[in-house]
Task: structure prediction
Amino acid sequence: MRDRFSDSLLAWYDQHARTMPWRIGPTDRRQGIRPDPYRVWLSEVMLQQTTVAAVRDYFLRFTTLWPTVQDLAAARDADVMAQWAGLGYYARARNLLKCARDVAELGAFPDTAEGLRALPGIGPYTAGAVASIAFDRPEVVVDGNVERVMSRLFDIHTPLPAAKPELTERARELTPLDRPGDYAQAVMDLGATICTPRTPACGICPWRDPCLARQRGTAPDLPRKTPKKPKPTRFGIAYIGRRVDGAYLVETRPDKGLLGGMLGWPGSDWSESPAPCPPTSADWQAQSQVAQHTFTHFHLTLTVMTATLPAGCNPERGQFIDLVPSSLPTVMRKAYDIAAEQFETD
DNA sequence: AAAACGTGGCG
DNA sequence: TCGCCAAGTTT
Result:
């Protein structure tokens, strides 16, 4: 039963495996070659809730700057956060550093799912993925792709997230003892290229015959999901001060909460009616264009205030730095882009 | 256990 | 134009 599924999928994977900077191909792997656990772990953390296309350049930059987990462990926090800027879910970057330092202390990555699971930023999915892909252990690996594939294969109509335990159990039963690393990547490739969310290509699927949802015509409607809550709109004010020498007044945000540990503009809270709170007295000028941004759970409309600050400026909050705009999280960069236009015309 | 936590692309 | 979606984890 188990091998009937894995054999057909692995045969498909041998022909259609996608190549990625952190992967080794099925041919190399069968010769006993295994991928570098550091690169597998780094890619898996970057890929949490994030598309392959978005991750690729970040992965290449990180591995160029920090080729080993020891290099990453020795990096400065601010440098890692700056390199992560734009990828989102910044707790991942803070936990990435913690994890790298724990692993450097241990001497190497744990080679079991249980050992990996104990590290910061590694949950059930990432522990299973690294254990199977890097160490060829037959651990169950359940991401969004696998949930979709299993819900269709077994025509499970229970909505997520309630269906998660059942989908995990089904996935566990199919996980083979032979080539578990290739198998884990194969199911995810299947979900990403054939068993897609909207219009699955059932006609060319290696599992088209046993798939219950294909037989019953329910595939496009699965998996079902419980409806999401609507997003409220919040408002805020950002103060972008540029000193005459070109330095910008920025703050490092507290580690906890939204955009934790990232650079940002001094400003109000983000609420229904924020109060003005200039970080230093100056002729603050409201920009006509606002920065619009949508976070996971709310929309934000950000008013951008700009001012040119004198050489001896001594602000109540923040510090002046020679700003590299790419080190800002996206919402802050949107505000910067609006301000930069203003400063250019000054 | 529900909510917090980013961003860009696509139909 | 806009909601949905992408290799989830933490609290």
